Structures are given as C-alpha cells and as structure tokens.
C-alpha cells in the first residue's frame, strides 16, 4: 500500500509495491479513498508489465480526480 504523504509533501511515489507484485506475479489493486466525496473503492486491478515508468504513469492517471485527505501533501506529478 502506498499512502499519501504523512508529515510532509510527497513528490516521489515509492515503488516497492510494484516490485513485490511483479516478483510474485500478482496484480496491483488500485484502491482509493476520496475524502471530498466521502467514498472509497477499487479503481482498477493492474497487472505490472515490467515497464515501471510507463506503468507508474498509468497508475497515477487513475488518481487524478481523487481528493486526498491532505491534498497539499499529495502529488501525482511525474518524478
């Protein structure tokens, strides 16, 4: 699980979840909690392709319309 920033702004998403899923040959479940709309759920079930840069762009695109609890600490911009 990759949480949004805790104490400071996060601009770089850690990628351990991706490598674990790839090595275990399991999908990544893209869950969300939208604090503005007060809803949560699953956005997509994503199978890592091995091209981490392209996959991270795709993964981040699923979150562009989701409101974080602390939006000033959350970023989906490219690294």
Number of strands: 2
Biggest sheet features:
2 strands, antiparallel
Physical arrangement of strands within the biggest beta sheet: 1-2
What oligomeric arrangement do these chains adopt? Answer: single chain
| Rg of Cα set | 13 Å
Helix content: 10-25%
Average predicted confidence as pLDDT? 87
Indicate the low-confidence ranges by residue numbers.
none
Q: How many individual domains?
A: 1
Secondary-structure element series: HEEH
Features:
2 helices; 79 residues; alpha+beta; globular
Q: What's the gist of this structure?
A:
The chain has 79 residues and is α+β, with helices and mostly antiparallel strands. It has one domain (16-73).
Q: Could you describe the 3D structure shown?
A:
- With 79 residues, the chain is of the alpha+beta class.
- Helix content is 24%, strand content 19%.
- It contains 2 helices and 2 strands.
- Strand 1 and strand 2 (39-46) form a beta hairpin.
- The longest helix is centred in the C-terminal third of the chain and has 10 residues, at 52-61.
- The protein is globular and about 35 Å long.
- The mean pLDDT is 87.
Helix and strand topology:
Layout lengths: L15 H9 L3 E7 L4 E8 L5 H10 L18
Antiparallel strand pairs: 1-2
